[in-house]
Amino acid sequence: MSKLKVVGEKSLTNSSRVVGLLAQLEKINTDSTEPDTARYVTSKILHLAQSQEKTRREMTTKGSTGMEILLSTLENTKDLQTVLNILSILVELVSSGGGRRASFLVAKGGSQILLQLLMNASKESPPHEELMVQTHSILAKIGPKDKKFGVKARVNGALNVTLNLVKQHFQNYRLVMPCLQLLRVYSTNSVNAVSLGKNGVVELMFKIIGPFSKKNSGLMRVALDTLAALLKSKTNARRAVDRGYVQVLLTIYVDWHRHDNRHRNMLIRKGILQSLKSVTNIKLGRKAFIDANGMKILYNTSQECLAVRTLDPLVNTSSLIMRKCFPKNRLPLPTIKSSFHFQLPVIPVTGPVAQLYSLPPEDDVLDESDDNEDADFEAEHEVENEDDLDQNFKRFQSRFFRFYTTHLQNDDIETDINKLRPQQVPGRTIEELKMYEHLFPELVDDFQDYELISKEPKPFVIEGKVRGPIVVPTAGEEASGSSRSVKKGAGVKEKVSPKGEEATEDARGSDRTLPQQLGGQNRAAASAHSFSSDIVKALDRITLQNVPSQVSPGVAAGMRKDCGLPLSVLSCTKACPHVATCGSTLFEGRTGQLGKLCCTGVETEDEEDSESSSSVEQASSVEVPDGPTLHDSDLYIEIVKTTKSVPEYSEVAYPDYFGHIPPPFKEPILERPYGVQRTKIAQDIERLIHQNDILDRVAYDLDNPNYATPEDGDILKFNSKFESGNLRKVIQIRKSEYDLILNSDINSNHYHQWFYFEVSGMRPGIAYRFNIINCEKSNSQFNYGMQPLMYSVQEALNARPWWIRVGTDICYYKNHFSRSSVAAGGQKGKSYYTITFTVSFPHKDDVCYFAYHYPYTYSTLQMHLQKLESAHNPQQIYFRKDVLCETLSGNSCPLVTITAMPESNYYEHICQFRNRPYIFLSARVHPGETNASWVMKGTLEYLMSNSPTAQSLRESYIFKIVPMLNPDGVINGNHRCSLSGEDLNRQWHSPHPDLHPTIYHAKGLLQYLAAVKRSPLVYCDYHGHSRKKNVFMYGCSIKETVWHTHDNAASCDVVEDMGYRTLPKILSHIAPAFCMSSCSFVVEKSKESTARVVVWREIGVQRSYTMESTLCGCDQGRYKGLQIGTRELEEMGAKFCVGLLRLKRLTSTLEYNLPSNMFDFENDLIESSCKVTSPTTYVLDEDEPRFLEEVDYSAESNDELEVELVENTGDYEPSAQEEALSDSEVSRAHMP
């Protein structure tokens, strides 16, 4: 054993009394001749350590040699009393001051010296009791702080010393207690646990623990903690199962539960549960637990504990054990593949679709064995490692390495700068790209055949010289007494007086009806209250063939036009100083009342922008019509008839037919009640315990074409056979509880998230529980305040045609249904997750619809585009709707071009028209992200509006828009994929023209623009985000990507234009839902085939973005604490347009001459003031903490590496300098 180097007195930190005593002790060590003096000095030091915190602090202060002197004395002295004194001093030092002092002792070599002391003391017969008590006590305290303690103890032979002491002095509780504490520390090393188990330690623990007793409860608690640590070894757990100890633990637990009436021994009860938790980690343990009736025992005891909040740890641990032991069930499906099949024109050679087609026709719902543990002999017979590394330390290293690589050096971050640098490669020849010429007529048209606004040439105005404030819409605060415009169905024109004042009536006065039209004749319809229920009862659903004949003539009249919605028209009473009249015309040649957006206040540009703007842009509101302005029920039906779906749908959902308007009230993020998850888990466990109470009755089955809807009045009726619908099977569990199973994406066996279905036959006043049982993601915003959406037909007929957030007792948790390895990326033992929510319906025999998010179908898009095209002013707005291509199922993928018409067909104006920069926008590549379509709707309506700001924007850019990149997926109710079964946003690198036509041709458009030197100024792909709040962007930056690898040298060498940050920064100032701190500009390897990265890298578009909109709500800004709605989403689309107009000004070199030092601003930000919250998108990172009561029964916390893994949350926080700048200054600081 190496001698410790003793440092002289001059190194001591103080000249205090203890310092003098330590110096004296050091001198005694040198002489080694005065044991009495050493005894005296150590007793004095012990007295000071016991009485003065100052003394303890001086001895453990960094730089002090006090600890070294004590350990040196302990190592060299032969005097027993001196040894005991020093041990008592060490106990005093580490007993206070937290773990720091224990770590300090370990750092000075204390654990090795104390273990050697233990071995020397064990050679005496009998061993000195006090010495053993003190040595074990101090080792139990410092052992957890020494990463190699388990190895050291095993090498020194200390394991058997401690175990033999317990066996030989079984009744000596004073000695046994510290020995058990040290055994617990030994057992954290799996090799040590196996070794101790072979020597009978498990049997020994069961001799110590026993039924309820008021004596020696402390010893019982320590023994249980030790047992729980030992049973984490699967070898020891099997030994416990073989000896019947699972039944023993349950018996002991019930006894303590019954007798501990005052709950003073909760820690003992929890210790028993912890031992059960450890032993049930193996399959044999779970079987023994079930055979011993453990489910019923723990269920009953945990239910009795619910009334006492302090017993929550017992309830939660019991829930965890029961969930783990709940027998795994198979989903009640014939196959996990989609109910619908679409034959692909080409079968991919590799990838998940190729594997799907190559699978033999066998059961793919459940693996032969859902447990993969009992190949878990681990190496627990474990011969010791050659290098004798402590296994606990290896686990710590593994966890640390996983954390480090995930958060600091994730392998997914691209680090090769050469690969990061954009390399414009045409990909296709110029001859091949000429096929897209016809989609760019604006580049060659001379407008000789157009009736333009002006035939006279005017002085050419330098682009960008627009003046006046930009006024943008907000979805601002609703005054309690204010009312908002509620549009009628598009089939009934609203009457607008010359002054813009519209007829008004109270929103609640729904007894009044509006004229209905039938075949050109006006008829009066009955009151909503008198006929709405008749409609609901009479119409099973709207079909494409005809309007049901069994309804009354008045009802039919309404249904054929706008379903007779007695919508009350509300006047806009709030004064709006920037708007002449709120009833002004939205579009040229079309009248309609403005919605609430026009009255919620306006924003003006900063003074500098106003001064440099032209009179073209006067103060006015951004007129973004609410939904029904573009809704036409008749047109929708006609469009649906031409929409091609794989199931050949012939029905139309009422919400899509009626249309949706935002409700005139706010919907706050739901506060989750405490304990909701464990309550739901307990109700699930009741299914196993009380199986006779379960109905298990099929209520809907898409796989069975002969299935007939039950006529029983006590069962709900379900349907999803309409566009974008997704519901595969429903099983009635209890009278008012239903399990719902979602359909997989077509040509896929997973991706279950999007749902949209119809429910009817309900009774009011009954709380119905719905469980969607085959979700796949490991967490959801349903755990953090998000609610599903419901649309009531009765409410729509009563002038409230809107989707609203509903549901209580909402939570998302892992269930007992097994996922097959086929659907889990080859991993066995995975489970599905459940979304559960409870709803009470307000109306009897209503027809209601539930959806994951606000539905927006392909037919709705086509209807909106037709309405926009027919309503625009062709002299003012250049609007083209082309077909980009046909999808796999033969639907057309629309391509929209929007810009301003040239002022005349003279050269100067045509030249200005053709030279406008392009903006390329796309959306809805993922069908389940319907919020992207609502944002796109806001963008399209803003671009087509007659406001001066919109006209200025059109005069600044040419917009090429693909509003729906995945029509087939949207139509058929997919969540992620197209009919090819692939995520189209992972196909941009090498899209297949036959399998991915929309991506192939959208990329072709961009390649064509690059080939003719007209690459877009901005590319943005609209998406939705399921795990984060707010709206934010992902961009591409070499410098920030390299910075995240912490290679500062490489980061400093990168020279990069910082203009990619300009647009997000502008949006963070003007859009209340936008959050700059959630933006990220890191490029990941896993995202190299996404639109954002490919357009940046291959097309050379610096400002290439993905804009993510939350599915839940906002946790910052004006909408903090509110769930997001279509009004806010459409507003975001309009704000994006306003941001582009500001971007135009800030990037105009003719407009601004910025000082050169402004360009160093972002570099300084990156190099000095950056704070990273989460550097990579490859992490399953949520923006919320887990709930305290949430049971973590997952041994699979890293989940499969899904392709849809959450995008990055990391970003740089603004510096103080940046916060001090004005809006325009900050925006210009980001200018290239």
Automatic annotation (TrEMBL):
Protein known as: Cytosolic carboxypeptidase 1
Residues annotated as the enzyme's active site: E1108 (proton donor/acceptor)
Catalytic activity reported: (L-glutamyl)(n+1)-gamma-L-glutamyl-L-glutamyl-[protein] + H2O = (L-glutamyl)(n)-gamma-L-glutamyl-L-glutamyl-[protein] + L-glutamate; C-terminal L-alpha-aminoacyl-L-glutamyl-L-glutamyl-[tubulin] + H2O = C-terminal L-alpha-aminoacyl-L-glutamyl-[tubulin] + L-glutamate
PROSITE patterns per record: PEPTIDASE_M14 (PS52035)
Main location: cytoplasm
Subcellular localization, as worded in the UniProt entry: Cytoplasm, Cytosol; Mitochondrion; Nucleus
GO molecular function term, any single one: carboxypeptidase activity
Species the sequence originates in: Mesocricetus auratus
Location of region: Disordered: 473-526, 605-627, 1208-1232
InterPro entries: ARM-like, ARM-type_fold, CBPC1/4, Cytosolic_carboxypeptidase, Pepdidase_M14_N, Peptidase_M14
UniProt similarity note: Belongs to the peptidase M14 family.
Extent of Low complexity compositional bias: 612-624
Keywords on record: Carboxypeptidase, Cytoplasm, Hydrolase, Metal-binding, Metalloprotease, Mitochondrion, Nucleus, Protease, Zinc
Skewed-composition ranges (Basic and acidic residues): 491-511
TM region positions: none
Cofactor: Zn(2+)
Its EC number(s): 3.4.17.24
